[in-house]
Amino acid sequence: MVDMAWDGQSVSARQDVKERARALDKLRTSDNVFRVLTRTAALFVLLILSGVIVALISGSLPALKEFGLDFIVSQSWNPVTEKFGALAPIYGTLVTSFVAMLIAVPFGLLIAMFLTELCPMWLRRPIGIAIELLAGIPSIIYGIWGLFVLAPFLQQYVQPGLISTFENVPGLSSLFAGPPYGIGVLTASLILAIMVLPFITSISRDVFDAVPPVLKEAAYGLGCSTWEVMRYVVLPYTRVGVIGGCMLGLGRALGETMAVTFVIGNAHKIAASLIAPGTTISATIANEFTEAVGDLYTSSLVALGLILFVITFIVLAIARYLLLRIERRIG
User: Fold this and answer.
1) What span, in angstroms and rounded, lies between the C-alpha atoms of 126 and 124?
2) Which neighbouring-strand residues pair with 265?
3) Cα separation, 61 vs 56, whole angstroms
4) 3-state SS assignment for residue 180
């Protein structure tokens, strides 16, 4: 009886070991499959990015070989004589994005501060939903609104006032000079500012909400005002997230196409005045790609796309470098 009982326990133990081994094999197999799937997805992103870079470089080679460095430093754009230069679109892209961020960042941060610290609870949700709806509006709607509503309003009420106000102010007189067309670099910048505002506001609001309440309560306990709490506690604690949100908005502003195409005027020339018509890289490509005749014309437009890709890469690299420096300083 003792031997039979011992044999039964031994058989049961062997079965437990086998079941445990099968369970471990199953877990190991599922882990390997999961690892392969995630690695494939990550490598697929690199493959797509590499494909885009190769396509842009190969497509822009004829234009770059023909014009060389002059393609970047020249603002001549004449499809008839096949003389192309990217300076005017590059200038328009950088200026409209800079002005848009100059407007959107302060507004976005102020709205986020109001929502997290000062807004009544009953008003917080409607404003938050309105901001999210702004992010969901298609860019072509912004373009139509800008062309038929914002541009006439600026032409009739705002630009004449800016011209007359700053006509005798050194520096500003050249920024607001010329006839009030309505459309132009300033109008495109305002449209871009409205479009990137939800990104900056939403991300800033989320990171402001993530600040531990004990930090703010300690500051309030020391007698700090709301502005001082935001200035010396919340913003330093959340600066990495805030910079990330601003960079996300800047990336959107650099690459925005349809809304800008409607209101910027699409003029291939560099003007010091913000109310003068201009163009951007994405607007030029959208306007002219379907009409491009000849390899050199098409290649020049692809080269514009390559330049936009490089500008975006440089901006994101600088943002990443700034974030790394901040993280190292914080420790």
Assistant:
1) 6
2) 278
3) 9
4) coil
Rounded to two decimals, the pTM is 0.84
Which amino acid is it at 181?
Y
pLDDT value for 248: 83
DSSP alpha helix (H) spans, 137-225: 139-145, 151-153, 159-166, 172-175, 185-209, 213-221
Tell me how far the alpha carbon of residue 102 is from its chain's centroid: 14
Mean pLDDT in residue range 82-102 = 92
Write the pLDDT tens digit of every residue in 203-244.
898 888 888 889 888 988 888 888 899 989 998 888 888 888
193 with 263: CB under 8 angstroms?
A: no
Write the Ramachandran bin of 121: left for phi over 0, alpha for psi from -120 to 50, otherwise beta: alpha
Which amino acid would we find at residue 10? S
CA distance to 25, 58, 66, 279, per residue, from 77 (Å):
65, 21, 14, 12
Alpha-carbon distances, residue 191 vs 108, 121, 194, 206, 236 (angstroms)? 15, 30, 5, 24, 30
